[in-house]
Amino acid sequence: MQAWQVHExxxxxxxxxxxxxxxxxxxxxxxxxxxxxxNINFPDVLMARGHYQVRPPLPFTPGVxxxxxxxxxxxxxxxxxxxxxxxxxxxxxxAAAVLPAPEALDDAEAAALHxxxxxxxxxxxxxAGLEAGETLLVHAAAxxxxxxxxxxxxxxxxxxxxxxxxxxxxSVARQLGCDVVxxxxxxxxxAAVKEATGGRGADVIYDPVGGDAFTQxxxxxxxxxxxxxxxxxxxxxxxxxxxxxxxxxxxxxxxHWGLYGTKNPKLVQHCHEQLxxxxxxxxxxxxVSERVPLSGAAAAVxxxxxxxxxxxxxxxxxxxxxxxx
Length: 325
Known about the structure:
- The structure is a single chain.
- The chain is α/β, with parallel strands linked by helices.
- The protein is built from twelve helices and 15 strands.
- The protein has helices at residues 12-15, 42-49, 107-111, 114-127, 144-155, 167-176, 189-196, 212-220, 242-248, 260-263, 265-280, 297-306; strands spanning 2-6, 16-20, 30-39, 66-69, 75-78, 90-94, 99-100, 135-139, 159-164, 180-183, 202-207, 221-229, 251-254, 288-292, 312-315.
- Strands 3, 4, 5, 6, 7, 14 and 15 form a seven-stranded mixed β-sheet that branches. The protein has a six-stranded parallel β-sheet with strand order 10-9-8-11-12-13, with helices on both faces.
- α2 crosses α12.
- The radius of gyration is 19 Å and the shape is globular.
- It starts with a strand and ends in a 10-residue tail after the last strand.
């Protein structure tokens, strides 16, 4: 089979190599899955660079989220068990963690449902307790992680303010359902949020960016506001001033969704059922901006790492050159 492999750490576009390799053999409690679609996530970029908390042994095949097909023909979503990731024709996953793919979504959409929407659901509901009528601020609202949070926030009855970088992303954020969109490249984020909320600020702030975005969050958090720290796509990990959190009476919440797979797997299953229902009702639908063939995976992972994509970019092995959409 064909699979992309990382033999040394560096930029994805430079260190990912497509090769003919043996089909992986599942271990105890694992299943072999034919990859129907593999969603690109920022951790794929970080793992290629050697900057992620999980460091699979070299060489490894990246791709942490797929829609696959079991040997008996069932369509499922799964997180492949590295080093046999999803940017390949076949991947391996832990059988206990394989979930049915929602019928309402096609392969690429189903591949993009699991990590981003589970992270959004746990962040907004489990950690922050978002309630209908509250104001949700989402940084990087047109990106893969942010777009999921926007849709989930709207489904929960919140007013959603999206922060994006660039005019092209403004239209995407509006399409996703943001009530207010702020272009950080041309607007003062702090002033714009305060204006949009009548000076009150945001009740829940969803931050996959870190750096300056986190600093802005602390200045626009409402009384009893909750800042959910999801990641650091900016590359800068902020150092919070806890005296500021005390004086303004806001909460900083960390979210490492991957821990729930071992700490509380039943809650992951419950979340998947909630997401499947929302998808069936049309309340959520992953925004897949690109579907690329397997041969284009490395370049696509690099684009995600460079921050020039919107929504989700999904690798579809059945596509051939010239058929990407």
